Amino acid sequence: MTANPAQPGQVPVTALLIGTIAIQTAVPPFATDMYTPAFPRVTADLATSASLVGLTLTAFFIGLALGQLVGGPWSDQRGRRLPLLIGGLVCTIGAIGCALAPGIGWLVAARVIQGFGGGVAAAVARAVIVDVAHGVLLAKVMSILQALGGLAPMVAPVAGALVITSSSWRMIFWWLVGFGALMVVTAALFVPETLQKERRHSGGLRATVSAFGELVSIRPFVGYLLTSTFSAFTMMAYIANSSYVLQVMKGMAPLPFSVFFASTALTQVLLSIVNARLIGRVRPQTMITVGLSASSLAVVALILGVLLWDTPLVLTCVGFLVLMAAQAFIFGNAGALAAMEARHIAGAAAALQGVSVAVAMAVSAPLASSGGGATAVPMIAVMAVGATLAIGSLSFARRAERRPA
Predict the structure, then answer these.
(1) What CATH number does the domain containing 295 carry?
(2) Do residues 149 and 274 both lie within one domain?
(3) What is the tens place of the pLDDT at every residue in 316-347?
(4) CB 3.0-4.6 Å disulfide test: which of 143, 205, 304, 368 passes with 382?
(5) How far apart are the first and last CA of the chain?
């Protein structure tokens, strides 16, 4: 059956609801950035190799992708509330398994479970927002969520380092058990059912496959999806290789680099709030254009500042800062515009958006960092390709919007 779009005002968009959704989507940065400082201790304690400990990160992201692909369409068929609660519960169980892991094999398996539950919760939470927020309000809420989400990567590494200095690596996962419990409790208290029975789909796996097939046939959805995907591809090149460029090639000390890295994330958070304030007076499409233009100029500055000899460090820093700040005008708006094209299958749309961005970042990181501290050419190439394809994707989406249905 085909569901009808939700009508505005069914469930009020409150600060508690937005905060709860932000908690449901914050699992990845906390479950990865808190944990990475503990890698040496995990390796020693479990008598394993560094490569196998690194595999626990891969396992988490595999689970995260699978969870989104399952959770989003499942919520289109069964409603949002039950899958959201089950996702948080499974994530908590996975964290308990990690904390109690007697060996590396157990830890890898538990990380898949933890990621799967987090993926289910994240996809369903984004679908909840699409159910209750419409038009300009949806773009505003997406920007606010982007701002809140940007705080997690800033807080998580510090929190993980503090835990490691006073306790064992297992305490990090007990902390994540508490975070999982917070996901379940807040979802139970503050997230009502936003997809009524008459708007749900039926058909199980066949309906899921059909939903994904329908999504790739919606041209504006695909265009905005690819806009955010290729922007993430560009941004990840900075995250993966900026330490090599600034510290090894440009001679920046570790402490100033850490401060600068945090400042780029903070700038993106602040501009996401600015974007939320501007939406309603400025069209989301215009804000995306501004963001992509700034991102492209930043890539040009980095070509000058990194690939040419004897250029000042400040030019490189400005390029990185502008590149990260520009994403504040892209992700929330592109995500909202894509979601509005597929409201009747919001869960499947949220799943596809999440997986697409995750895959782009997973591909970008090894490509961009392949030059290490010897050359920045791979990083610049990844950025240039990503920025170009993002602009092309936005153009495709705009043309598709103007075509008669």
Answers:
(1) 1.20.1250.20
(2) no
(3) 888 999 999 999 999 889 988 998 888 888 88
(4) 368
(5) 21
